[in-house]
Specification:
The structure is a homodimer.
Chain A (H helix, E strand, L loop, with lengths): L1 E5 L3 E8 L7 E3 L2 E7 L1 H11 L4 E7 L1 H12 L4 E3 L2 E2 L5 E8 L5 E5 L7 H16 L3 E5 L10 H11 L4 E4 L2 H9 L4 E2 L3 H8 L4 H10 L4 E5 L5 E5 L2 E6 L11 H14 L4 H16 L9 H8 L3 E4 L5
Helix pairs in contact in A: 1-8, 4-5, 6-7, 8-9, 9-10
Chain lengths: ~300, ~300
């Protein structure tokens, strides 16, 4: 199985309103709720791609109960979330139906107690030993040490299990130094980590900091991957317009899916780009348009990347 | 006891953000949750004024459970909410800490099934028979007939129990025709009911439509009350600045409190204005600043209102 870690799980709530105007009162016309947090999106996409997935991290309170109930209804995902006293955070995405714009409100998440973090580490150690790959995704809730991902990367590497890290800021900086197999920053996260806004230079710098493979997600410009075997650029055959929320999580799922299927890197990148683009056409993160995915899979353009290009 | 009816109960959630900008992502710095819906605010203020209160209406789902848990911790309020299959709605108030402005997002509320409405009517009939007064407050959830308040007014009047109605639109129009003892519209609701933006004329018109006493809440200009005994204007001694959310609900609580204490109308209005103004100084609806209330109680200016004024 593939293990996904979501330390800051969320109940993702989407509101549709006619037009969002600050200082006004709005009638919400439609409410949807989904399990959220990047790792849970990755888990749902992996399960839809046919993989067995175990999802761990933290869940608590009535919002955590809602997340777990919905996970129980998700075929292919085993719930190994660790219970905590605090309530799982909500995120609210307010979709303006006139402009299509989304305004996001993210609660901070519950404070994780030291005993809860210890309980997680114990459970994680056991789960890693039977995992084919591990994904560490998203922000850290309050109370979890900033070096958390570095510790989780080391545990996975000590067990000989490939580990992918997708986070930002200081947790990314420390996690990269623990030498994960793959990191998947977006352009902003990469620039924050390396100080460089030039993707190829920044990607190389991220490798020097410890990541074996760096896969930078560059929005409409697809993926740029660099490792000891080579450099590749992977782009969809045409621009896909839609809701980009969750596209990065789907790229992570595609990379892991290709990894456990032992695909060569160009085919892994093609899978990641295809499922990511197919997510842009789905209404919510963690879901994708299957027909688009299958159509794109053969048509993603993967080219060796020339340093001078 | 005083019976408050809140058909569209809510879990009121308040988010604080640094600056609200449409299309941006926001980190919520503070989250608070309170039982909401106008009638539950009235119930909490009445309890704080020393009355025994029974709160009925509907509650369902995990949000309904949160509302009921918090009511259980509210001294003086007996929970007689009728369970429903749908989930109690959330309302989100997003407070911009830079400007102090509030942006409101209101979920529509669960659809009430015919059997749930019947169960409520049966329970209401029993509760009314032991009530000293009834308050019918707020909007109707989907599935409840638009003539609901008219029916609830008639039941209370048939039992000889004084009934106050605080709603808007068509439910108010129909409810007024059932001859409630008191209606408490704000300026907008009164104008919508009568077509007149001139408060005294509109207040008289609302009386002609069936209400025995009309108490119009005019924001900073206090209350204007008209009935067969006379006309009064009640205003605070000075303007109170703060958060007006819940001020109208507190005015309803003050009116009912004065009614069951058999105060003459001018003293009822003074109580309503004092507790309403003291609510403006409290951070959330359903609460008030007790010291301000006690100070204002003797200083509210109540004057007979001259038709020519």
């Amino acid at each position: 199985m593939i293990l996904t870690v979501t330390l800051n799980t969320a109940l993702d709530i989407t509101y549709r309103v006619r037009t969002l105007r600050p200082h006004a009162s709005h009638r919400v016309t439609e409410v949807t709720e989904r399990p959220g947090g990047k790792g849970l999106n990755v888990a749902r996409v992996l399960a839809a791609l046919g993989h067995r997935v175990t999802a761990t991290g933290f869940a608590g309170g009535r919002t955590g109960r809602s997340v777990r109930d919905q996970l129980a209804d998700t075929s292919g995902v085993v719930d190994a979330l660790v219970p905590v006293a605090g309530a799982t955070r909500r995120t609210i995405a307010v979709v303006d139906q006139t402009t299509g714009d989304t305004t996001q409100l993210n609660e901070p998440g519950p404070v994780i107690a030291p005993a809860e973090w210890s309980a997680f580490l114990e459970s994680y150690g056991e789960l890693v030993s039977s995992a084919a790959a591990v994904a560490l995704c998203g922000s850290l809730p309050p109370g979890v040490p900033v070096g958390a991902y570095a510790q989780l990367v080391r545990t996975a590497r000590a067990a000989g299990v490939p580990v992918l890290l997708d986070t930002s800021g200081e947790p990314l900086r420390r996690g990269v130094a623990a030498r994960p197999d793959v990191v998947k920053p977006n352009a902003d996260e990469l620039a924050e980590l390396t100080g460089s806004h030039e993707p190829l230079q920044a990607t190389r710098d991220a490798r020097r900091r410890g990541a074996h493979t760096v896969v930078a997600s560059l929005g409409a410009e697809g993926l740029l991957a660099v490792n000891a075997e080579g450099r590749w650029r992977a782009v969809p055959p045409s621009r896909v317009l839609g809701n980009p929320t969750g596209a990065g999580d789907s790229a992570v799922a595609g990379l892991l899916s290709g990894l456990v299927d032992l695909l060569p890197w160009p085919a892994r990148l093609a899978r990641a780009v295809a499922v990511s683009a197919a997510t842009v056409l789905a209404p919510v993160a963690g879901e994708f348009d299957r027909r688009t995915y299958e159509e794109l899979l053969e048509r993603v353009i993967v080219t060796p990347h020339n340093a001078a290009a």
